[in-house]
Structure formats: structure tokens, C-alpha cells
Write a structure and sequence with these properties.
Length: 272
């Protein structure tokens, strides 16, 4: 019921508006591109503030449309756009539109048409929403380092310092964001420090991630050292053991040798 009356309202009022646009020489038109980072609020201005009729028509990127309108006669407002698209304050004071938290689904063309005694005015905004990616830099055991920018819009750009043997691939996700993965082969890398630069229009500066293979080398060196030390310690302990064993064995042998004649003499004594 409400949608129907909304349709009627828009049609009834847009009819003369369209006619006026054609016939009135003073009609003006403004256009702008609004680029915003997802989650941020955006205001879309409609240049002529006090009007008898203000209609915001929204053509969303997914093919659907909606409107937000105001008529001074009877102080009537109507809309069928989503909750987060509304007037910035009250339309009788301000015709500006506010998107509280812009999302990819809000992307599209926002067209404002106003009507007052001086004529009709159109202004159009093209809204683009940027989604910053999630970033990561990881080291694989098979000699590769992976730099990843997940679910960004548009796709992020990845570069390496030092530039080396790397390959970059991107994958488009169902929701329109893109994941970019760059794999760096460290086998022939001459330097130990690897830096991955990720740039994206949602950021003012590149994201810098670095990884030090020195740690890896250090781990290898220390492992070798540990093994060597353990071996040396083992050998040392073994030598000590052998030495001690020999020492005691000989002593025992000596004792045995010393004991030998005694027993014999004792035996001799018994005989005697
Ligand atoms: C809003 O109303 C217009 C005009 O009646 C219609 O074309 C559009 O599909 C409606 N949009 C939504 C989201 O209901
Ligand atoms: C129009 O309506 C708004 C709220 O819907 C109200 O704040 C405002 O005072 C009204 N203006 C007039 C002139 O009635
Ligand atoms: C288009 O986007 C709007 C706003 O998010 C949503 O309400 C509507 O269901 C979507 N329509 C389609 C066909 O995806
Ligand atoms: C019409 O234009 C005149 C002069 O440009 C301006 O003073 C007046 O406020 C305008 N009227 C409306 C309703 O915008
Ligand atoms: C290296 O390992 C990663 C994951 O651990 C794998 O995706 C990649 O294909 C491997 N590369 C080769 C050449 O085996
Ligand atoms: C898009 O999809 C990916 C994975 O399905 C998800 O991680 C990401 O948050 C989504 N982004 C948006 C803006 O919906
Ligand atoms: C890295 O490059 C070397 C030769 O430069 C190659 O033998 C090796 O397979 C590569 N490793 C990966 C994971 O692509
Ligand atoms: C690598 O980084 C470490 C600290 O993270 C630094 O001490 C070292 O000098 C760097 N090496 C090179 C070759 O840049
Ligand atoms: C990357 O390297 C820079 C200097 O070379 C250093 O300031 C920064 O802390 C490093 N970042 C990480 C995550 O190690």
C-alpha cells in the first residue's frame, strides 16, 4: 500500500518536473564522483536548498532503484531506500542526503532533482565504495614467502624489495572483492631482508611488511652448532668413560694380581 502511494507520488510529481527540465532555460545540472572507504559516512549535496519538491532517485549498481522525496506542500516525506540512506537533517531545511555507513551495496548513481519558483535543478553523484584488503606476509617451509591482500576493492597492488623471482595472481570473490597473492621464491634471493609493499586506493600510504630470512639462517647455523656441540660433548663423555673404565679396570686387575700370591701363600700356609 505504502509502496504504491510512493510510486504514485513520485510519478505524479516527476511528470511536471521532467517537463520543466525540458522547458525551463534556467535548469542546471551538476555532477560529481564520490569515492569513499567502506564504513565511512558520506553526504551528498543537492545545490538548491529551499524547494517545493526534492526527489533523490537512486540507481544502485545491482540494478535496483529507490527514492527519497520531500514535498513542502503538506510537509510530506516519503522513501523506499534502505535505512542507512536518509536526509541529513529535515528536508525543509536541508536537501542533503546522508549515507551513515557506506557499504558496497550502496554503490550507484544518486540523482537529486529540485523544483522551486526559479526552475528545476538536477545534480548527480556517482558513489564508489572502496574496501581495504586484509594483509599478511608469511614464510613457507618450501623456500617461498607469500604476501597476500585479501578481499579488497579494487584489487591491491603488490611489489617487493628487492625485486626478485615473484609471481602474482588475483582471484575475484563472489561479493566483488579481490584477493591478490604474490609468491616470492627466496632460493636465489641475495638479500636477507624481504619487504612487501601493498598499495590500495583506500590507504594514503602503502602497507609495508617485512620478513628477515636472517632468522632462518640463524636457526640453521644454531642447529648446526648444537649438533656439533652435542657430538663433541658425546665424544668427550665417551672418552672420559673409556678412560675411567680403563682406570678402574686396571686398578682392579692390579688388586687381583696383588691378591693372587696372597691367596696362594695363604693356601700354602694352610698346607703348611
Ligand atoms: C521504490 O519505488 C520505486 C518506484 O515505485 C520502484 O521502482 C523501486 O523498485 C522501489 N524500490 C524498492 C527498493 O522498493
Ligand atoms: C515538517 O515535519 C517535520 C517532521 O516531520 C517537523 O519537524 C517540521 O516542523 C514540519 N514543518 C512544518 C512547516 O510543518
Ligand atoms: C540490491 O541492493 C539493495 C541494497 O543493498 C538490496 O536491498 C537489494 O535486495 C539488492 N537487489 C538484488 C537484486 O540483489
Ligand atoms: C530564485 O532566484 C533568486 C535569484 O537568483 C533568488 O534570490 C531566490 O532565492 C530564488 N528562489 C528560490 C525559491 O530558490
Ligand atoms: C609451497 O608451499 C605452499 C604452501 O605451503 C604451496 O601453496 C605452494 O604451492 C608450494 N610451492 C611449491 C613449489 O611447492
Ligand atoms: C567478501 O567476501 C570475503 C570472503 O567471502 C569476505 O572475507 C569479505 O569480508 C567480504 N567483503 C565484503 C565487503 O563483503
Ligand atoms: C625457486 O627457484 C628455484 C630455481 O631458481 C627452483 O629450483 C625452485 O623450484 C623454485 N621454488 C619454488 C617454490 O618455486
Ligand atoms: C635486515 O633487518 C635487520 C633488522 O630487522 C637489520 O639489523 C639488518 O641490518 C638488515 N639487513 C639488511 C641487509 O638490510
Ligand atoms: C620493517 O623494517 C623497518 C625498517 O627497515 C622497521 O622499522 C619495521 O619495524 C619493520 N617492520 C616489521 C613488521 O618488522
Amino acid at each position: 500500500m505504502e509502496t504504491k502511494s510512493g510510486t504514485n507520488f513520485v510519478l505524479k510529481n516527476l511528470g511536471p518536473l521532467i517537463l520543466l527540465t525540458v522547458s525551463v532555460a534556467m535548469s542546471t545540472r551538476g555532477e560529481s564522483n564520490q569515492i569513499i572507504v567502506a564504513g565511512a559516512a558520506v553526504t551528498l549535496a543537492c545545490p538548491h536548498q529551499r524547494s517545493s519538491l526534492i526527489v533523490w532517485q537512486v540507481y544502485l549498481k545491482n540494478g535496483t532503484s529507490c527514492y527519497v522525496s520531500y514535498m513542502s506542500e503538506g510537509n510530506k516525506t516519503q522513501k523506499n531506500c534502505s535505512k542507512n540512506v536518509d536526509w541529513v537533517s529535515t528536508p525543509e531545511l536541508d536537501s542533503t542526503l546522508l549515507i551513515k555507513s557506506s557499504q558496497m551495496s550502496n554503490e550507484g548513481i544518486y540523482k537529486c532533482s529540485t523544483l522551486n519558483n526559479n526552475g528545476t535543478f538536477d545534480s548527480e553523484h556517482v558513489l564508489t565504495v572502496l574496501v581495504p584488503p586484509e594483509v599478511s606476509l608469511t614464510q613457507d617451509t618450501n623456500g617461498t614467502v607469500v604476501c597476500k591482500a585479501t578481499a579488497g576493492k579494487p584489487a591491491a597492488k603488490i611489489s617487493w624489495i628487492p625485486p626478485g623471482d615473484s609471481s602474482t595472481a588475483s582471484e575475484i570473490l563472489p561479493n566483488g572483492t579481490e584477493t591478490v597473492t604474490s609468491i616470492y621464491n627466496t632460493t636465489s634471493a641475495k638479500e636477507n631482508n624481504l619487504t612487501c609493499f601493498i598499495s590500495h586506493p583506500a590507504w594514503s600510504k602503502s602497507y609495508i611488511l617485512n620478513i628477515s630470512q636472517v632468522d632462518n639462517e640463524k636457526i640453521k647455523i644454531s642447529t648446526i652448532l648444537y649438533i656439533t656441540l652435542s657430538c663433541l660433548l658425546g665424544i668427550l663423555l665417551l672418552s672420559v668413560f673409556i678412560y675411567l673404565w680403563h682406570f678402574f679396570y686396571r686398578r682392579q686387575k692390579k688388586v687381583m694380581e696383588n691378591k693372587g700370591p696372597e691367596t696362594i701363600s695363604r693356601q700354602n700356609n694352610q698346607v703348611n
